[in-house]
Amino acid sequence: MSEFVVRPARTSDVPRIVDLVEPLVQRRILLGKERVDLYGAVPEFRVAESRDGALIGAGALHVIWEDLGEVRTLAVAAPWIGRGVGWAILQRLEADARALGLYRLFCLTFEVEFFGRNGFVDMGTETVDPEVYAELVRSHDEGVAEFLDLARVKQNTLGNTRMLKVL
């Protein structure tokens, strides 16, 4: 039997997701999210739960465009880092992306080595085709704005790397 399972998040997981990501927000590794936004994003989240019921990891898949999704808020509890939790959550998010018809995923991350080992590459200045860009620029979603590097968001306030994976 595995040490943990990855499953869809439930609303009752939100307080535990907040507890999991808060130390990373304080260290400016992840952007903080309002609790109301996390509740609204529950269907996007997958969580890892240990055999004893502890929430040990979480990550979300947010649809950006017909073929493009964003891996968001991927976090693992410190004692579980290096034990396959992040990899298992990412595999589940990639499977979810494929099931939705997405074939490209991006992330904004400091964990360049982890995502690189999992097939993501530094995007540099590449974003999307001009027609898609014109549509996306009208979005009010901050993840879209960060992906496109729009002036209406602080320019890469965390100093992280934009990475892309073609599924």
UniProtKB/TrEMBL annotation:
GO terms for biological process: L-arginine biosynthetic process. Keywords: Acyltransferase, Transferase. One of its GO terms (molecular function) is L-glutamate N-acetyltransferase activity. One of its GO terms (cellular component) is cytoplasm. Residues 4-151 form the N-acetyltransferase domain. InterPro entries: Acyl_CoA_acyltransferase, GNAT_dom, NH2A_AcTrfase. The keyword Transferase applies. The keyword Cytoplasm does not apply. PANTHER family: AMINO-ACID ACETYLTRANSFERASE (PTHR30602), AMINO-ACID ACETYLTRANSFERASE NAGS1, CHLOROPLASTIC-RELATED (PTHR30602:SF12). This is N-acetylglutamate synthase. It comes from Candidatus Lumbricidiphila eiseniae.
